[in-house]
Amino acid sequence: MIRRILAYADGDDLVASRDFYVEVLGLEVAMEDPVLGLRSPADPAAQVLIPPPGMEDPAPRFGIDVGEPAAVDAAHAEALRRGLRVVHPLTNEPWGVRRFFVEDPSGTVVNVLAHLPRR
């Protein structure tokens, strides 16, 4: 089950980006490390993520939260079965997500992720 689709913005100036999205558009800060995560106060699933410059190469165009780590594993297995190019390996990140990046058939890089259970 898809929980949310996450938009990514460029992060050349994280302070200016934070000010813009918070003060101009009314989003609230959900996290600041390792990326600036902003969300709608009315719908926390509506989010924009802003990674710092050079954090990820290649940088994903958007993210899809598939809900559970097992769903990340299933999507990864299906991507491999179909011969799609995985450009960031299946990884448990220290900030609490399991993810991988895959190119869609047109070459768009997608971050497929789910939050890991809290320990």
UniProtKB/TrEMBL annotation:
Q: Which residues form a coiled coil?
A: none
Extract the Gene3D superfamilies matched here. Answer: 2,3-Dihydroxybiphenyl 1,2-Dioxygenase, domain 1
Q: Which residues form the VOC domain?
A: 1-115
The UniProt transmembrane annotation reads: none
Q: Which domain of life is it from?
A: Bacteria
InterPro entries named among the record's database cross-references: Glyas_Bleomycin-R_OHBP_Dase, Glyas_Fos-R_dOase_dom, VOC_core
Name under which the protein is recorded: Uncharacterized conserved protein PhnB, glyoxalase superfamily
